[in-house]
């Protein structure tokens, strides 16, 4: 089943509704499609400033990874990185997209790397924006705790106590850019309580980030872009990824935090277009 509203679409994959946005549908098939993959606790909303810039020249697809954004929050779905990568690959197959430029932010960088590992023929080039890296799987004690009844309520209370404002302050360098639209956009998906049950499963299913030996086997050309003031994924992670990804280039941005698509959309657009 497919649902369409302007540039927004919902399609069922693996029994779960997947929300995605498609822009510049009339773009030439001679150009690869730019595919945007968001980070943890985020959604396609995080690319709202970048999409209009890229869509002037390229077809753009942005995906809400389940259980985030407007995608489903199923109690049966397997929320592993590899399976999330498989969902994106299946979506692209349904859309008959055969060549892509992957742009992954934060956790979306790991999903992008998994896509390149599973389907190297699909990915022409990759751009990683402050990508997560070298995180191990959740500790066994936390995974076992997730089976305790009402664990999802504990998770909800913890995130509520932290608050969206605290999170935004942590991910952007210039706090003056945080406005009501930004706060509402990042907070809205969490009004649905089902996300906390799904995130409980996410804790159980998430494998560790790709290890060095698997990163070193990726032959895709990759551009790494990092904010020097990133408090979430420090520049040292980007430098390590640069060493392990044999066909990579690293660019750093001054006075920039973790949320690159929001903080420096014009600069990111120029770097992406120059790279591809």
From TrEMBL:
Pfam families in the record: Abhydrolase_1 (PF00561)
Domain AB hydrolase-1: 32-265
GO terms assigned for molecular function: hydrolase activity
Gene3D superfamilies membership: alpha/beta hydrolase
Domain of life, per lineage: Bacteria
Alphabetically ordered keywords of this record: Hydrolase
Protein's UniProt name: Alpha/beta hydrolase
């Amino acid at each position: 089943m497919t649902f369409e509203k302007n540039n927004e679409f919902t399609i069922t994959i693996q029994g779960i509704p997947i929300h995605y946005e498609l822009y510049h549908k009339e773009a030439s098939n001679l150009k690869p499609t730019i595919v945007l993959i968001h980070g943890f606790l985020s959604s396609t909303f995080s690319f709202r400033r970048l999409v209009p810039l890229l869509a002037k020249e390229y077809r753009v697809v942005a995906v809400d990874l389940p259980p985030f954004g407007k995608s489903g929050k199923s109690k049966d779905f397997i929320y592993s990185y590899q399976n999330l990568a498989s969902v994106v690959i299946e979506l692209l197959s349904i859309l008959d997209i055969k060549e892509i430029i992957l742009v992954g932010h934060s956790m979306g960088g790991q999903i992008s790397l998994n896509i390149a590992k599973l389907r190297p023929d699909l990915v022409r080039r990759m751009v990683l924006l402050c990508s997560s890296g070298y995180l191990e799987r959740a500790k066994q004690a936390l995974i076992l705790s997730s089976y305790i009844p009402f664990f999802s309520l504990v998770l909800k209370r913890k995130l509520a106590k932290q608050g969206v404002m605290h999170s935004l302050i942590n991910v952007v360098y210039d706090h003056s850019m945080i406005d009501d639209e930004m706060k509402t956009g990042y907070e809205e998906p969490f009004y649905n309580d089902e996300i906390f049950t799904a995130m409980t499963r996410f804790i159980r299913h998430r494998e560790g980030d790709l290890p060095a030996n698997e990163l070193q086997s990726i032959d895709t050309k990759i551009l790494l872009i990092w904010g020097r003031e990133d408090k979430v994924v420090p520049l040292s992670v980007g430098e390590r990824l640069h060493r392990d990804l044999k066909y990579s280039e690293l660019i750093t941005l001054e006075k920039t935090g973790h949320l690159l698509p929001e903080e420096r959309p014009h600069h990111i657009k120029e770097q992406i277009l120059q790279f591809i």
